[in-house]
C-alpha cells in the first residue's frame, strides 16, 4: 500500500478545496452582471418603474456579492491553513 504522509494529503486537499471555492467568486460576478443587464432592460422598457427596479437590483446584487465574498473567504481559509 502507498504510504502518504497525512499532513501532505491534508495540504493537497486544502489546495484543491480552495480552488473549487474560488469558483464561487465567478458565480457572484456572473449573477451581478445578469441582474444589472436585466435592470437596465427593465428601466428601458418602463422608465416610470425605475425606483422599484433599482431598489430590487441593489438588494439582489448585495445577496449575489455576499455569496461571492463567502466563497472567497472560504478559499482564503483553506489556502492559508
Automatic annotation (TrEMBL):
Source organism phylogeny: Bacteria, Bacillati, Bacillota, Clostridia, Eubacteriales
Gene that encodes the chain: atpE_1
Major subcellular location class: membrane
UniProt cross-references to InterPro entries, sorted A to Z: ATP_synth_csu_bac/chlpt (IPR005953), ATP_synth_F0_csu (IPR000454), ATP_synth_F0_csu_DDCD_BS (IPR020537), ATP_synth_F0_csu_sf (IPR038662), ATPase_proteolipid_c-like_dom (IPR002379), F/V-ATP_Csub_sf (IPR035921)
Site-annotated residues for Reversibly protonated during proton transport: 65
Listed Pfam families: ATP-synt_C
Gene3D superfamilies, A to Z: F1F0 ATP synthase subunit C
GO molecular function terms noted in the UniProt entry: lipid binding; proton-transporting ATP synthase activity, rotational mechanism
GO cellular component: plasma membrane; proton-transporting ATP synthase complex; proton-transporting two-sector ATPase complex, proton-transporting domain
Biological role stated in the UniProt entry: Key component of the F(0) channel; it plays a direct role in translocation across the membrane. A homomeric c-ring of between 10-14 subunits forms the central stalk rotor element with the F(1) delta and epsilon subunits.
TM segment ranges: 53-80
Protein name: ATP synthase subunit c
Keyword Membrane in record: yes
Chain ranges of the V-ATPase proteolipid subunit C-like domain: 16-78
Organism: Clostridium tagluense
Keywords: ATP synthesis, Cell membrane, CF(0), Hydrogen ion transport, Ion transport, Lipid-binding, Membrane, Transmembrane, Transmembrane helix, Transport
Family: Belongs to the ATPase C chain family.
Membrane topology: Multi-pass membrane protein
Subcellular compartments: Cell membrane
SUPFAM superfamilies: F1F0 ATP synthase subunit C
Amino acid at each position: 500500500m502507498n504510504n502518504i504522509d497525512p499532513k501532505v494529503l491534508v495540504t493537497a486537499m486544502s489546495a484543491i478545496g480552495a480552488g473549487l471555492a474560488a469558483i464561487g467568486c465567478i458565480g457572484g460576478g456572473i449573477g451581478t452582471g445578469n441582474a444589472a443587464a436585466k435592470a437596465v432592460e427593465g428601466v428601458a422598457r418602463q422608465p416610470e418603474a425605475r425606483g422599484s427596479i433599482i431598489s430590487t437590483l441593489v438588494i439582489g446584487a448585495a445577496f449575489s456579492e455576499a455569496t461571492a465574498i463567502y466563497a472567497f473567504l472560504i478559499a482564503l481559509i483553506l489556502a492559508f491553513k
